[in-house]
Amino acid sequence: MMDLINELWYLRRDLVSDGYDQALNRLAQEVPMTIHEYPSGEQCWTWRIPEKWSVQEAYLETLAGKRLIDVAHHPLHVVSYSLPFEGIVTREELFDHLYVHPTLADAIPFVFKYYQRDWGLCATQRLKESLTDERYRVVIRTRFEPGTLKVGEVIVPGKSSQTVMLAAHLCHPAMVNDDLTGVVVGVDVMRQLLQTTNLYYTYRLLILPETIGSVAYLSHHEDLIPDMVGGLFLEMLGNDSAHALQFSLQPDSAFDRCMATAFRGLDSQGYTGAYRSIVPNDERQFNAPGVRVPMLSISRVERPSYPPHPYREYHSSLDTPAIVSQERLEASRDVVLGLLNAWEHNGYVVNHFKGEIFLSGYGIWIDYRENPEGSRRLFEIMERCDGEHRVADIATELGISFQAVWEVIAKFLEKDLVSLSVVPKPTAPRRS
Ligand SMILES: [Zn+2]
Fold first, then answer.
1. Measured in angstroms, how far is the CA atom of residue 156 from the centroid of ligand 1?
2. 309 C-alpha vs ligand 1 centroid, how far in Å?
3. Which residue among 8, 173, 255, 432 is least enclosed by CB atoms within 10 Å?
4. Maximum distance among all alpha carbons in the chain?
5. Which residues have beta carbons under 5 A from ligand 1 (an ion)?
6. Distance 111 CA to ligand 1 centre (A)
7. Distance from the alpha carbon of residue 120 to the mean position of ligand 1, in angstroms
8. Residue 302 C-alpha to ligand 1 middle, in angstroms?
9. Would you state the torsion angle of the CA atoms of residues 414, 200, 341, 386, taken in this order, to the nearest 10 degrees?
10. 23-28 — which CB contacts under 8 Å span 24+ positions?
């Protein structure tokens, strides 16, 4: 994952751009990928596909010709999708178009103007403070032309057409934690799933430009939407912080419940938050009206109450490979795989027994004097095996992790005391 990051991070990956295409083509060598193309100008629901954008040169210089800012030195020195502009401007006029990072004096900020067209340059606060001349020369040579927006799709088919969606965006030029980490973790997750046999659900990973990529894909695949049972948006998975799970707009969905209980068993330092309360991304398009897929997001952002939220180097030139690590990426990949693995096993637990199980007869009795909590749990879980509770429902009712319930259910499965069903199969007699 770090090798891919080192190879791709510095590319000029704007929404529709050569750098984005180059990165996506490279990723397509890692896993079997279909690349969907949507032409500039095409209407997708209420949106329109943007033009391809490229920058030939962009710089600021003194009237004497001293170069102060140059996009050749860093891709973030020009606003993404900046209009072309060339002329002599007053310092005041320049400052209306010169962006700096609000807190980091030595960082160049990431600024984009996809839909409110304007020209703009970005610099460090230090550079801006040194600008004392009355007039400067600005040159921004950018080009807008018809192109195609591209969405990469990796599919791991399961027995069922019911699908879990994964998504990550690739449109942040010369930055790493946001957004390349989500992409490489997603690719690695798919690589693992491709080697897993007997998957019940189908998995689709989308690699796309933020927001417009999700709208483009969904509007062209409306037939797939009814089969989308849940999803996870992936990003900011390399910084040194605990995992954050943000629920969908339907926090009581079976998918949300399962993710919540499984997450408890995967990162003891992790925290959770309501929809839109941690960090909003492409999951918004999946949760939106007419789509309504319960898509959660997993990241490592700092808690919203903590000042460097989402993380110190966010949307700046300091978001480099230096702030992420292979170890954390692997840990995040394992959290995502753990969440998906729980969903695969989240069947309705159908009891083959009536009454309490004769536990000692099956060799699964736990001595309540030695392990009172384990003994109580065993009974509490057994009581809920009735063909009407999924594994995650039992975990939710008991306030424990999915994995803790699964440990007991696995023993019951081994002794053929229960089976799992994808549909409810109530075993209690009906009463009128
Ligand atoms: Zn971002």
1. 27
2. 12
3. 432
4. 93
5. 178
6. 10
7. 18
8. 15
9. -50
10. 23/170, 24/150, 24/152, 24/170, 24/207, 27/152, 27/170, 27/183, 27/187, 27/207, 28/152
What is the distance in A from the centroid of ligand 1 to the CA of 213?
14
> In angstroms, what is the span from residue 315 Cα to ligand 1's centroid?
6
Kindly list the structural domains of the chain, giving each domain's residue range(s) and its CATH number in brackets, ordered by start: 2-49+148-344 (3.40.630.10), 52-145 (3.50.30.90), 348-421 (1.10.10)
Binning the chain into helix, strand and coil, the percentages to the nearest 5 are 30, 25, 45
Alpha carbon of residue 22 to chain centroid: 21
